[in-house]
Automatic annotation (TrEMBL):
Component of the proteasome, a multicatalytic proteinase complex which is characterized by its ability to cleave peptides with Arg, Phe, Tyr, Leu, and Glu adjacent to the leaving group at neutral or slightly basic pH. The proteasome has an ATP-dependent proteolytic activity. One of its GO terms (cellular component) is proteasome core complex. Belongs to the peptidase T1B family. Its main location: cytoplasm. It is found in: Cytoplasm; Nucleus. Pfam families: Proteasome (PF00227). SUPFAM superfamilies: N-terminal nucleophile aminohydrolases (Ntn hydrolases). Keywords: Cytoplasm, Nucleus, Proteasome. It comes from Leishmania donovani. The lineage of its organism: Eukaryota, Discoba, Euglenozoa, Kinetoplastea, Metakinetoplastina. One of its GO terms (biological process) is proteolysis involved in protein catabolic process. This is Proteasome subunit beta. The keyword Ion transport does not apply. Component of the proteasome complex. InterPro entries: Ntn_hydrolases_N, Proteasome_bsu_CS, Proteasome_sua/b, Proteasome_suB-type.
């Protein structure tokens, strides 16, 4: 750009374009350095040393400020909150076995952390075969996963054996193997099948948050004492003639 003056022509310098990245304070090329050159490497080393010294000086100043302050930290240290992948969704199940019948019962309340998620949860008692049921408590996600895996294995057994329904003993062994396989990250479930009568050891069984409260007025008394049990209880009565289902109302609060 030329500008005419009274005596001579003066060439003005061109205005430099603003940098595309405003955080660039300067460019090494402004000083005649180019990548790969010796001067460039010297400049880079100097910049690294300068940055390290500046960071160390800031660290020392922070330490001096903390040493001179009156702030005192508690001796026990900061409180740690550890995350857990498990959650107990409450509920209670029970089973009674007789000479030619089995009764399974489970409440319909689903909750966690003092929150009521559902009053009509039907996932605690699950049908595996026409005459094999499983009652489960614990974490609902693990309970549903275990039920679906068992259902898949039962169908696979039927496919490989011409549609023959697996006996309860085979299903119990299958469940034992599956739970042992997950022993390092186990399913958070507590299960009852065939009322524990597979080997003739028990005539009844209970699982869940109110298992220790069950007695002759089982679920009514348990609902009075345990906030995780309530709403209603579903009964599955299994006999040689078939399966009968009944429901009994519990307290709602």
């Amino acid at each position: 750009m030329l500008r005419r003056s009274s005596r001579l022509l003066v060439r003005l310098p061109k205005c430099r374009r603003p940098r595309e990245r405003p955080w660039e304070i300067f460019n090494v090329r402004d000083f005649g350095y180019h990548e790969g050159s010796q001067n460039y490497m010297m400049w880079l080393g100097t910049a690294v040393v300068f940055t390290s010294m500046l960071a160390f000086e800031v660290y020392q100043q922070i330490q001096r400020k903390l040493a001179s302050s009156t702030l005192t930290l508690p001796k026990q240290g900061a409180k740690q909150q550890q995350w857990s992948p498990y959650q107990d969704n409450g509920g209670t199940t029970a089973a009674i076995a007789g000479k030619d019948f089995v009764i399974l019962a489970g409440d319909t309340r689903l909750n966690g952390d003092y929150c009521l998620h559902s009053r009509h949860d039907q996932s605690k008692i699950f049908q595996l075969t026409p005459y094999t049921y499983m009652a489960s408590n614990g974490m609902q996600a693990d309970r549903l996963q275990l039920q679906q895996m068992l259902k898949y294995r039962v169908k696979w057994y039927q496919y490989n054996n011409g549609g023959r329904v697996p006996p309860t003993k085979a299903i119990a062994q299958l469940m034992s193997t599956m739970l042992y396989h997950r022993r390092f990250f186990p399913y958070y479930t507590f299960n009852i099948y065939d009322a524990g009568r597979l080997n003739g050891a028990f005539l009844y069984g209970t699982r869940g948050s109110a298992a220790s409260f069950l007695e002759p007025n089982a679920f009514t008394g348990a609902a009075e004492r345990d906030i995780y049990t309530g709403d209603s209880v579903s009964f599955f009565i299994i006999t040689k003639d078939g399966v009968q289902r009944e429901s009994f109302e519990l307290r709602k609060d």
